[in-house]
Hints:
alpha+beta; CATH 3.30.1330.40; 4-stranded mixed beta sheet
Amino acid sequence: xxxxxxxxxxxxxxxxxxxxxxxxxxxxxxxxxxxxxxxxxxxxxxxxxxxxxxxxxxxxxxxxxxxxxxxxxxxxxxxxxxxxxxxxxxxxxxxxxxxxxxxxxxxxxxxxxxxxxxxxxxxxxxxxxxxxxxxxx
Length: 137
């Protein structure tokens, strides 16, 4: 089973359960590949406006989308995303709110994703860092 749009095809092997909130595989069509460095929850002047996970996640995702947009892309062009988070418990407790932010910024597009819990991040007081890869037609 697979789902196709203009820029990529979501790959789901036969008999696999539909993943929730991510894709197992995306086959990108021809385009320019954009590799994004890790984005934390600071603003364009590198100031953190919160030390809480939810607003940092929202800002980090907005930062990702700003880079994608500058390259001529849209949220649905993101094929792969890796999130590094310092607080597993806070993440699990916040999933509903994080999901609302996701829907607002990304719609129903779910790239291949990994969530990795880490001891620390370079930029203090960052709680989450997101890196991504996009294929822009």
